[in-house]
Amino acid sequence: MRIGILGGTGPAGSGLAARLASIGHDVVIGSRSKYRAMETVDDLVGKWPQLAERLTAGDNAGAAECELIVMATPWDSAAGTAQENGDALAGKVVVSMANALVRVNKKFQPLVPPRGSVAAHVQAAVPRSRIVAAFHHLPATELGHIDEPIDSDVLICGDDPAAVLTVSAIVDDIPGCRPLDAGELSNATAIEAFTAVLLQLNVRYKTRVAPKLTGIKRDPRVVSPSE
Amino acid sequence: MRIGILGGTGPAGSGLAARLASIGHDVVIGSRSKYRAMETVDDLVGKWPQLAERLTAGDNAGAAECELIVMATPWDSAAGTAQENGDALAGKVVVSMANALVRVNKKFQPLVPPRGSVAAHVQAAVPRSRIVAAFHHLPATELGHIDEPIDSDVLICGDDPAAVLTVSAIVDDIPGCRPLDAGELSNATAIEAFTAVLLQLNVRYKTRVAPKLTGIKRDPRVVSPSE
Prior knowledge:
The structure is a homodimer.
Chain A: E1 2-6, H1 11-22, E2 26-31, H2 34-47, E3 55-59, H3 60-63, E4 68-71, H4 75-84, H5 86-89, E5 93-96, E6 101-104, E7 107-110, H6 118-125, E8 130-133, H7 140-144, E9 152-158, H8 161-172, E10 177-181, H9 188-205, E11 210-214, H10 220-223
Parallel strand pairs in A: 1-2, 1-4, 2-3, 4-5, 5-8, 9-10
Antiparallel strand pairs in A: 6-7, 8-9
């Protein structure tokens, strides 16, 4: 699939770009400055030459022309950047992965963004798009280490079941990741806020945590939408 | 340790009472009605006769005399019940385990309670007590199945490190549970809200999920406070 990552030059966006390219997607890394995007692509291809044919640099408008879109800007730019590209994004699956966090005394605290979550804010900004919230809890560094699997569940929520299935199928192709259907987009509030707890655990235990949920057997309805 | 559970007749409170008794604690199940508490104790002892010598029924004021307190009332009674017993609770470790959730169209949605979390609301109601938030994500039914271990991490947060250590040591004695230090009490907001996502997964996958975090090695500073 051709995937555009708006604001794809930060750690999470570029890590996800590398990971998605590594599983066979064509990824356009978008940025406000296409030159920053070119620099990010150069860095990634420098590390993993095999990704060269899968990664392209562009501005955000160019990335927005892709089939599926990921919003990877800082959380407070996500809704605005989506809105600026609203026509290109109409009808498409748009993945929101940002968390509204603020650092207070070296600790991360979740904020309540407009509409209750970054994902809901983006959905309000581009009502013709099909917003899916995903990838909030994956550590950015590990996301970009494409030679290693990521041992994590990925909570996915959204109001459009077909869009959730599309994103679930992508997640299921990432080695070690299990997509989980976490219900409607309103659950993004709690999923985003919980990232603050995971970051706190990272600091406390000097590690990178990833969440797993016990008690769930694989559900073919989620991971194989084509069946 | 002698542990009092205020509002201990509901599923979470009685399940926790049975579990704590099963690992050797003396537990007083408190309730607004001591007769309801007696009924709960009878039910539990009927199922597990070996807990008879560990479980006592009382009213909330009686349970509040114990060494360590658990608030297991419905979330909207937690702060009020704590405040009514404020003198008895002064100086003590008080565990907040409730989640502020509301059911909308068969789905659970988190609410923002006064002060941002149930735990913070309780802390404000009993400022002389040492509030620790814990046990939010454990499924109540499995908590009460004392013959089975619970395969789950337990996120514990609070502003008093010694109080967090005390609760961590109790959690560490529950077979299958791993206590994790999740930072200050402000993290209770996200931990409580995340319960709505877990309940959603329970419905979606017809199971009872419990969270585990990959990437953390056991930390002796958390699990062995006496060292």
